Amino acid sequence: MTHHFDRVKNYLIDLDYNITYENAEEEVFVVEYPDAGIYNLVIAVADPILIMEQFLFELKEGKPEVFRKLLEKNRDIVHGAFALDETGTRVVFRDTLQLENIDLNEIEGSVNSLELLLSEYSDELIEFSKN
Fold first, then answer.
1. CATH code of the domain made up of 3-130
2. H helices of 15-103, where?
3. Which of 27, 49, 105, 106 is the most buried (most CB within 10 A)?
4. Do 70 and 91 contact (CB within 8 A), yes or no?
């Protein structure tokens, strides 16, 4: 376990995020922030970066117009971006931060970006998940 893991844990606690899972050996957290509609946000300490990943929806089939709209929306996202997981079927929100100088404001900014995305773009995400 690195000092980065402890520092990130302290930031998560300071931000009042609910840590639902913690594995110090793998340096992974799963957090919830129900007030923002965030559940099962995976946060991994992978020195030299912190990876934040939130599953959004499963693609039933790869429609080019869905990919295009997601890529266009990436321009508006303050922190992070839409991405596909390694299967190519699960759309996730993903953000990475440098651990060396990470602070509470950076983590909060990334989670706030996800919160804003979910509040502003939820109808479209629901539609994409149905296709």
1. 3.30.1460.10
2. 64-74
3. 27
4. yes
Q: Which of 94, 93, 85 is nearest to 59 (CA)?
A: 85
CA angle 10, 28, 99 (to 5 degrees): 60
Whether the upstream peptide bond of residue 34 has omega within 30° of 0, thus cis, is no
pLDDT per position as a tens digit, 77-95: 999 999 999 998 899 999 9
Distance between CA atoms of residues 5 and 98, nearest Å: 13
| pLDDT of amino acid 58 | 92
Query: If you search the block for the tokens 């919830």, which residue do you land on?
Result: 32
Query: Average model confidence (pLDDT) for the chain?
Result: 93
- Domain range summary for the chain, segments of one domain joined by +: 3-130
59, 70 Cβ separation under 8 angstroms: no
Per-residue pLDDT tens digits for 19-46: 999 999 999 999 999 998 999 999 999 9
Beta bridge partners of 51: 44, 96
Residue 42's closest CA among 56, 55, 32, 52? 52
Q: Where does the chain have alpha helices with state H?
A: 3-14, 64-74, 104-130
